[in-house]
Each structure stands twice: as C-alpha cells, then as structure tokens.
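Usage

Read records sequentially. Each one opens with the input sequence:
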Amino acid sequence: MLQRIQSVFLALALVAVALTFFMPSLIIRFKAEGEITAVYNNYGLVSVTSAGLNVLEPGYNYLLGALALLFILFAVFQFKRRKLQIMLCRVTYGVLLAMVVLNFFMPGPAIETLKTNLQVESSVYGMAFYMPLLAMFFVFLAETFIKRDEKLVKSADRLR
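and closes with the structure output:
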C-alpha cells in the first residue's frame, strides 16, 4: 500500500532527484572586470554574465535524472510486487551513482577552456551535486524496509 514507510522513503528520494533539475551542481566565479560566473547544472555549463546567459557546453545529466525519476516512481506503485521493487531500487542505485560521477567529471573539460581566458576565483559544489547522494540514502532505506516486508510475508506463509 502507499502508506507504508518505504513509500515515504521513495517519495523523499523522488523529491531529492526532482530538485536536481532546479539547482546548480557547480558554481565557478572568475576574476574579471565584470561579474562572470559559470554554473554547471543538469542541462550543462552555462555562463552567467552581466550581459545574460550563454550556454557553453550541453550536459546530459538530465537524462539520468529523468530515468531515476521514472524508476523511483514506478517502484512506488509496485507495492504488491516486492521483488520487483527491490530490483528497481538496485537499478536506481546505478543511475544515481552515474549522476554523481557525471556531476563530478563532466564540467572539467569545459571549465579548462574557460580557464585559458579567465582566472578562477572560487568554485563550490551546489546542492544538486549532493541530492543524488541523499536520494541514494532514501532508496537504501526503502529497500531495507521492502526486504523486511518480504521476510515477514515469507514467515507468514510458512505458518499456514
């Protein structure tokens, strides 16, 4: 049923992954005459200057985010098929881990081309970098409670 604790954890993981679409993963400030900032998010590397937005390099992390959202949403409604729910949780781990890896390694080449022209003042990871890790934690908790339910059902079947 939808009111089980694992459904709540899967819903929290769904919210955490959805937030990655609206938050930056990496923010880089450059030393220059004007305020120049590069922001890496799910959609790619975007330069934010006083003149406006300029897309520097497209990113494909939004595809992994959408895939993770679909797996988690599908797992929420598979409450009668616990083994499928467990399998979906494990596949979601892989997708979320790929999101973290892409968030870590993808901005590098585009930032290197920017560094040739500008000097980096500061770079900081945004909240979207950490949200897939939080979602992995919630999926882990959901999987733990799904396994507990499966164990309870098996023990009840043995008593019959």
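Summary fields computed downstream for this record:
- The longest helix spans residues 127-159.
- The first strand starts at residue 26 and ends at 31.
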